[in-house]
Structure to design on (346 residues):
């Protein structure tokens, strides 16, 4: 089968590899779609994030093709979402209800960990089907289901935050995760939502998906913080979600929440960024990171999609072939700020 292999910074090649086989306790899924995640793009643009020779892609949906011995409850042909990794079930975090922090998660994640090839291929091997496979209801299309991973990242952050019904919220960055956060906050009963986003196209989409206001940081300039605070009695929002992953966003997001408010950090930024400690201390602003999600988030997400409560229109910018994954996928995402999610059909 033809697969897309990561070679290094801004370099991929196509290989022919044998179709994977399901060993004991494993499954093989025929890939219908694989989304290109923001973390995939980050890995493509920066050396050393994922190992050379790996097939990338962890946002996978498809059909069960093969079941290994000892796997119960699944049969070939079932439509599934493939969660990126499976928990070990034994470490401190798994035993304390925090499987997203499993100490072995990053070493057993499809499309990221050495030896765990991902979904930029016709078939993907699933090592831990009990944790990683989730049925797609008849009411949910593959096009909607391929967004489950993205929706769940935003959902996990909101569920871990202090957000409550009637709170005011700010979302910094209206990429795929930020746009999901906007819609989930609206579903959750936010009183008012402000979005900060440079791209006019994404600001427009954010408004359509539930934001009350969408501001351009370039147009607002130094007055951005004051303007956002003015929407909330001059003191700021209750909680802010930093989804941009830029140094500028990280340094300014704490100015958008009230004293005693909370900042949730979802964006990936490897550039060292100083924290303004005095401002955080005297205003008692909490900053909290959020990574991945758990099985309950997946169940909630699929239920929202099945009931038609989550609007996916406009979230997928394009569906491309595997042959076009570099030029029409990674390179286009790197150069165009108006794209949201590009999906690959291997």
């Amino acid at each position: 089968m033809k697969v897309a292999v990561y070679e290094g910074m801004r370099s991929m090649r196509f290989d022919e590899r044998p179709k994977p086989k399901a060993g004991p306790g494993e499954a093989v899924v025929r890939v219908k779609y694989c989304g290109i995640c923001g973390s995939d793009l980050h890995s493509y643009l920066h050396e050393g994030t994922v190992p050379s020779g790996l097939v990338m892609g962890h946002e996978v949906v498809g059909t069960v093709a093969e079941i290994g011995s000892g796997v119960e409850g699944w049969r070939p042909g079932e439509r599934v979402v493939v969660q990126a990794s499976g928990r070990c079930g034994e470490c401190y975090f798994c035993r304390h209800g925090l499987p997203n922090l499993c100490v072995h998660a990053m070493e057993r994640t499809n499309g990221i960990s050495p030896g765990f090839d991902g979904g930029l291929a016709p078939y993907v091997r699933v090592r831990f089907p009990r944790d990683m496979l989730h049925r797609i209801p008849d009411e949910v299309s593959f096009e909607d289901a391929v967004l489950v991973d993205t929706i769940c990242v935003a959902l996990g952050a909101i569920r871990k935050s202090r957000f409550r019904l009637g709170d005011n919220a700010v979302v910094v960055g209206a990429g795929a995760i930020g746009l999901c956060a906007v819609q989930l906050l609206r579903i959750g009963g936010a009183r008012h939502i402000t979005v900060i986003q440079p791209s006019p196209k994404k600001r427009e989409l954010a408004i359509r998906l539930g934001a009350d206001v969408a501001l351009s940081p370039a147009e607002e300039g130094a007055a951005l913080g004051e303007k956002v605070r003015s929407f909330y009695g001059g003191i700021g929002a209750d909680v802010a979600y930093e989804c941009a992953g830029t140094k500028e966003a990280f340094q300014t997001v704490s100015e958008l929440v009230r004293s005693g408010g909370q900042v949730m950090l979802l964006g990936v930024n490897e550039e060292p960024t100083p924290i303004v400690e005095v401002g955080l201390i005297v205003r008692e602003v909490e900053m909290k990171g959020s990574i991945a999600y758990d099985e309950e988030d997946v169940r909630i997400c699929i239920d929202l999609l099945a009931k038609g409560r989550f609007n996916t229109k406009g979230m997928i910018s394009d569906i491309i072939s595997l042959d076009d994954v570099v030029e029409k996928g990674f390179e286009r995402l790197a150069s165009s700020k108006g794209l949201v999610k590009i999906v690959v059909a291997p």
The chain has a mean pLDDT of 95. The longest helix spans residues 148-160.
